[in-house]
Amino acid sequence: MEHLAVQYDDTLALDALDLTVADGETLCVLGPSGSGKSTLLRAIAGLEPLAAGRVAWDGHDLAGVPPHRRNLGLMFQDHALFPHRDVLGNVAFGLRMQGLDTAAVAQRARETLALVGLAGFEQRRIPQLSGGEQQRVALARALAPAPRLLMLDEPLGSLDRNLRDHLVLELRELFVRLRVTALFVTHDHEEAFAIGDRVAIMRAGRIEQAGSPADVWRRPATAFTARFLGYNVMTLGNGPVAIRPEGLRLDADGPIEGVVRSRTFRRDHFLVEVELADGDVLEVAALAAHGGLPEVGARVRVSADPSAVVTLATS
Known about the structure:
The chain is of the alpha+beta class. It is built from eight helices and 19 strands.
């Protein structure tokens, strides 16, 4: 993707966006709602006209190539399955569009269902399936035509957390085993870091930061990325810094002073929100000490672990 721009009336949904997906790589595009993630997938698929820039595969410009000839797979959050077709019929749909004969279509559809753990489900009706099973059918339908790029738009967003965590591991293992080239869109950073070889953070139609999951997580480059990933952002010394909640602690001798605005139980700790004099709010991960936690409205002091402080770019 080179200098991609997509415009809706006066709004730039994609703004001079540059991004490359390597062969066999799973690239996770991560960002808040409205950042342009879904528009990016639709632009690559040829479903949105470009105001500027180009989409190229191996250096070949895809301008003028219709969506059905790009050999790209696209899987949506709502799965978009055909309720009037059985499981085999849904998976076979894309294969029939390739002009394969009936026997080849059935064989490839069954092989793909086996890959996603649904062997024996061929004759099941879609309404009879659980949410996780429907997600697997949608994945099988996207994989069956062997697309050169598989694009997934919030594919796990409608599932409960336990099932999502389980399927993330399965998807990661499947993509690695099949050496799938994939572009995976999500707003959930835990999901992105678990499944991606590389992560790209989107903001207002542009790529804010890209890198390995470990690098992006440990070294957010900008205040936007840091806040999106759950860091506190504040000014210390000569410029802005990011600090994870667990890098801060309530400390009677700490240099930072504020007022407790709220406290929330988070299984193994409490998340205490401390409002500073300038209006900024810090989230502090605190264990319940013998004396208990400070009440809402109490004045407290906070200190930071120097090793947990990440210096951010000033612009």
